[in-house]
Design a protein that fits this description.
The structure holds two protein chains of two kinds.
Chain A (H helix, E strand, L loop, with lengths): L6 E10 L2 E11 L4 E6 L5 H8 L5 E8 L2 E2 L8 H4 L1 E4 L11 H8 L6 H14 L1 H5 L10 H13 L5 E5 L7 H18 L2 E6 L2 H7 L2 E6 L2 E7 H6 L1 H6 L4
Parallel strand pairs in A: 3-8, 3-9, 6-7, 7-8
Antiparallel strand pairs in A: 1-2, 1-4, 4-5, 9-10
Chain B lengths: L5 H22 L10 H25 L4 H20 L2 H18 L2 H26 L8 H18 L3 H23 L4 H21 L1 H4 L5 E2 L5 E6 L5 E6 L3 H23 L2 H11 L1 H6 L4 H27 L1 E2 L6 H14 L4 H17 L7 H15 L14 H5 L1
Helix pairs in contact in B: 1-2, 4-10, 5-10, 5-13, 5-14, 5-15, 6-7, 6-8, 6-13, 7-13, 10-13, 11-13, 14-15
Chain lengths: 240, 408
């Protein structure tokens, strides 16, 4: 692992109009690690990811990707640079087939042969998608849609994958499957993962480091295992 | 049986009384201020009898009294369906094409005229389909680009004497430029706001056409637009070309048919290309499309401009046929009609839109003798359609259509 973080936020402020969602977020993600951001509803977790991707503009502060400032880079350029987000609530294309959804993940790429191979690879990773490749995205179950959303993001060949609430509205057994796959992606492809979760327990088990966000500010930063042991965290987020 | 359908009959009675109340102001109040009741009751009683029979058949059918009639019918239709689906697609295309080619020989002057209208509206419908059906942007000012195309040809032809074939690409280009100018500020909006703004811009273009006296001759329109000119090869005395004006409607029909085919092929190719995929992703979820690396603004502008190009070309043909253009041809009602055709036929489906145009242009012509009820029948048809086939006459097929899926 090199010393330079692949993704770094320095004192980032952003918000929606007069509502300030982020009040100075600073975090670092090293290449190859899984980092979890945990926090309650409305703490600013999703806004952090949306600000990194430029969907929400940062008002102050710096977002650095691979040492480059990406505050002003338009959102659609980021996948070409290797930064891709799986948005909250999956947001797959409901009336397009599974295949077309995956093709859209590879939208900026021109290497058709490699794209077809990658699609086959995602079917190996998610066999259920292979079975349903002609089905419309909207007719899949919640878990399958989440898998499709992850597979679609992987089609951009990301170096850093941003995952927003992958466990949202899913059954525990499916959540476990999704997290297993996240671990596999991280291990086998070496993809760096920044994970935003309300399910703090699962997220911290999967991650190597964690940040705790409260009302737009980072209140705690530690190794994931240490956070899991932290009595405050256990009380506030793990329900003990 | 009576008990079961009590609800149906009750609703039917209320509906018919409501219809009576609705019909009376339309038929009973006359322009000279007199009020009558006779005509309303006559029309209403016809409708009552007709719908009563329909409903009775429906009730008998659902309660199983008509099995002896329905069963053989459904069996034969099932057989016909399986027989027709066995025919490959290209057979259908050739069949339609052959019918379209021999049509003017069979139809009279009036029939050909209506057919030309249908063909031009097919171009408009397919063009609007790119904007509404593929990219999912509701555009209520689409007819303005048709107007821009028509006026471009009319002005260039009358003032500078340029030939049709020179003006056709220029018409497409000016419509495209107009599309970009209108689209650039408006496409930042989404949904309802976009619809309102496009409606406004459509009206602005019409009002410009109406008021810019020096250029467009205002509400008087531009007269004396030349028809299409072609060079016809003659083999007497060696090989020479003779210049002809396409004045005969039958001949013009074939040019309009050619345009419609070109537009249909163009839209089909756009639909199944990378660009089409980007448009559909924008329609489905704009933010997600952006996150996947689709430059949403550029692609939305492209959809808008492509729609305008098709409308501009259709506009040039319109001017060449009418030999006259005036702002009255490009009102909001026309935009709404084209939108109805797209929605009725099935958004994103090319055969659907062709059928939608046929239905909405041909039906009012067929019902022309019922003059004052035309719009009533039109409205009723639309409502019935939306109730029974909400996704259009021929909904766009989404599953297994793309080429890569056959391979994959």
């Amino acid at each position: 692992m090199s010393d330079q973080p692949i993704l770094e936020l320095k004192n980032v402020h952003s918000g929606y109009g007069s509502i300030k969602a982020l009040k100075g977020i600073s975090l670092k993600v090293m290449p190859g690690e899984i980092v979890a951001i945990i926090g309650a509803n409305g703490a600013g977790k999703s806004t952090t990811l949306m600000t990194i991707c430029g969907i929400v503009q940062a008002e102050k502060g710096e977002v650095l990707y691979d040492g480059k400032l990406i505050n002003k880079v338009s959102p659609e350029k980021l996948p070409t640079m290797g930064l891709c987000q799986v948005p909250e609530g999956r947001r797959i294309f409901p009336r397009l087939t599974v295949m077309e959804n995956l093709r859209l993940g590879a939208f900026y790429r021109n290497d058709t042969d490699q794209i077809m191979k990658d699609i086959q690879h995602s079917y190996e990773l998610f066999p259920i998608l292979g079975d349903r490749h002609k089905q419309q995205g909207g007719t899949l179950s919640g878990g399958e849609q989440q898998m499709l959303a992850i597979a679609r993001a992987l089609m951009t060949k990301p170096k850093v994958l941003l995952l927003d609430e992958p466990s949202l509205g899913l059954a525990p057994i499916i959540i476990q499957q999704i997290f297993d796959i996240i671990a596999t992606i991280n291990k086998e492809e070496g993809t760096t993962i920044l994970l935003v979760e309300q399910n703090a327990n699962l997220a911290l088990q999967a991650a190597s480091r964690g940040y705790v966000v409260e009302t737009g500010e980072i209140t705690l930063e530690d190794k994931a295992s240490a956070l899991l042991e932290n009595p405050k965290i256990r009380e506030a987020y793990l329900g003990e | 049986m009576i008990q079961e359908f009590k609800k149906v009959w009750k609703q039917y009675t209320i509906g018919m009384l409501w219809l009576l109340g609705l019909l009376w102001p339309m038929l009973g109040i006359h322009a000279d201020g007199t009020l009558t009741f006779q005509k309303t009751v006559t029309v209403w009683s016809y409708l009552l009898a007709g719908t009563f029979v329909c409903l009775l058949i429906y009730v008998l059918n659902t309660s199983g009294y008509l099995k002896f009639v329905v069963d053989p019918i459904s069996r034969t239709t099932g057989k016909i369906k399986s027989a027709t689906s066995a025919l490959p697609n290209w057979m259908w295309f050739t069949l339609v094409l052959v019918l379209a080619l021999i049509y003017p020989q069979l139809a009279g002057r009036y029939g050909t005229d209506v057919a030309i209208n249908v063909l031009l509206y097919i171009c408009l419908g397919l063009g609007l389909n790119v904007v509404v059906g593929l990219a999912g942007m509701l555009d209520l000012g689409y007819i303005a680009f048709y107007g821009v195309g028509a006026y471009t040809y009319a002005i260039l032809n009358v003032t500078y004497g340029l030939a049709f074939w020179v003006c056709l690409p220029i018409s497409a280009l000016t419509a495209c430029i107009a599309g970009c100018i209108v689209g650039y500020p408006t496409l930042r909006m989404r949904g309802d706001y976009l619809a309102i703004v496009t409606l406004g811009f459509g009206e602005i273009i019409r009002i410009i056409l109406n008021n810019w006296m020096t250029l467009t001759n205002g509400p008087n329109g531009i007269l004396g637009v030349k028809p299409i000119g072609i060079y016809w090869p003659i083999f007497e005395n060696g090989f020479t070309f003779e210049h002809l004006w396409v004045k005969k409607l039958q001949l013009f029909y074939y040019f309009a048919l050619g345009l419609a085919i070109v537009v249909a092929i163009g839209v089909k190719h756009l639909n199944f290309s990378r660009v089409g995929r980007a448009w559909e992703s924008i329609r489905e979820d704009e933010t997600a499309a952006e996150l996947m690396g689709v430059n949403t603004f550029i692609y939305k502008l492209l959809a808008y401009a492509m729609g305008a190009v098709f409308a501009g070309m259709a506009g040039a043909f319109f001017a060449a046929r009418m030999k006259f253009v005036s702002p009255e041809s490009f009102t909001f009602l026309e935009s709404a009609m084209v939108l109805c055709m797209v929605v009725l036929g099935g958004m994103g489906s090319i055969p659907g839109i062709i059928l939608g145009v046929l239905a909405l242009i041909a039906l009012p012509e067929v019902f022309r003798q019922f003059d004052s009820y035309r719009m009533l029948i039109f409205g009723a048809t639309m409502i019935i359609m939306m109730l029974f086939r909400p996704s259009g006459l021929i909904p766009a097929k989404r599953v297994g259509t793309r080429s890569e899926e056959k391979e994959g």
